[in-house]
Amino acid sequence: MCRHLGYLGPPRAVGEVITAGSHSLRDQSWAPRDMRRGGTINADGFGAAWWQGDPGSPDGVQAYRNPVPMWADPAVDGVLGQVRSGAVLAAVRSATVGMPLERAACAPFTGDGWALSHNGRIVGWPVSIAGLAEWLPAVELLRMPALTDSALLWTLVRRRLDAGAPAAALASVTADVLEAAPESRLNLLLGNGTTLWATTVYHSLSVKVDETSAMISSEPIDDDPGWQPVPDGRLVEARPGHLNITELGDHL
């Protein structure tokens, strides 16, 4: 399992976004509170994506990833402390047994102006999902950033983003994966620099939105009473001044 976080609001240092709060994403890498028997620590790498310039541009998103624990990388306070953005998506990783420990396997995965993170696992990987992967063109499978369940989810979502709305892409992918591999945990977090979308499938998620900022996180990063837990089986759409939480099935 993993932990992830998305932020939209006034420009801040990327390093500040992922270390701010009494229970920051960095704290969650070594002391998560709600892993739901999905592990005890998130020490298998981390990543952060941020948008600069035109968020809608295919080249608008940049990313930093490292397969070491977040707390062990001085770049979090160094390099990432110097980069400012009003849109950040970050994650810490707890690798499923048997999956590679490498930079390319660390979320968020980025491309064409999008960034995506996955908190959870596909049960029975890779056999359970082989039938669904067969529908992808061979070239897309060969271009997967890593041989992991999260990278396959990114590949599936990215293809469906070309064909429809983000909410529909996330809902259809989660539905198809659950049909092939029931009881998989599929909390996805997707951003394009202006809006965040997230799913809750058997894992924790909270959201906090006001008129100037929006934040989605696997666990609240502080004790602010504005945090709202998201029930299971939901799809969240958030940006400053806007929050919509609906049933996942409403988007199929």
TrEMBL record:
<keyword id="KW-0808">Transferase</keyword>
<comment type="pathway">
    <text>Amino-acid biosynthesis; ergothioneine biosynthesis.</text>
</comment>
<dbReference type="InterPro" id="IPR026869">
    <property type="entry name" value="EgtC-like"/>
</dbReference>
<dbReference type="InterPro" id="IPR017932">
    <property type="entry name" value="GATase_2_dom"/>
</dbReference>
<dbReference type="InterPro" id="IPR052373">
    <property type="entry name" value="Gamma-glu_amide_hydrolase"/>
</dbReference>
<dbReference type="GO" id="GO:0016740">
    <property type="term" value="F:transferase activity"/>
</dbReference>
<protein>
    <recommendedName>
        <fullName>Gamma-glutamyl-hercynylcysteine sulfoxide hydrolase</fullName>
        <ecNumber>3.5.1.118</ecNumber>
    </recommendedName>
</protein>
<comment type="function">
    <text>Catalyzes the hydrolysis of the gamma-glutamyl amide bond of hercynyl-gamma-L-glutamyl-L-cysteine sulfoxide to produce hercynylcysteine sulfoxide, a step in the biosynthesis pathway of ergothioneine.</text>
</comment>
<feature type="domain" description="Glutamine amidotransferase type-2">
    <location>
        <begin position="2"/>
        <end position="252"/>
    </location>
</feature>
<dbReference type="GO" id="GO:0052699">
    <property type="term" value="P:ergothioneine biosynthetic process"/>
</dbReference>
<dbReference type="InterPro" id="IPR032889">
    <property type="entry name" value="EgtC_Actinobacteria"/>
</dbReference>
<dbReference type="GO" id="GO:0016811">
    <property type="term" value="F:hydrolase activity, acting on carbon-nitrogen (but not peptide) bonds, in linear amides"/>
</dbReference>
<keyword id="KW-0378">Hydrolase</keyword>
<dbReference type="Pfam" id="PF13230">
    <property type="entry name" value="GATase_4"/>
</dbReference>
<keyword id="KW-0315">Glutamine amidotransferase</keyword>
<dbReference type="InterPro" id="IPR029055">
    <property type="entry name" value="Ntn_hydrolases_N"/>
</dbReference>
<dbReference type="InterPro" id="IPR017808">
    <property type="entry name" value="EgtC"/>
</dbReference>
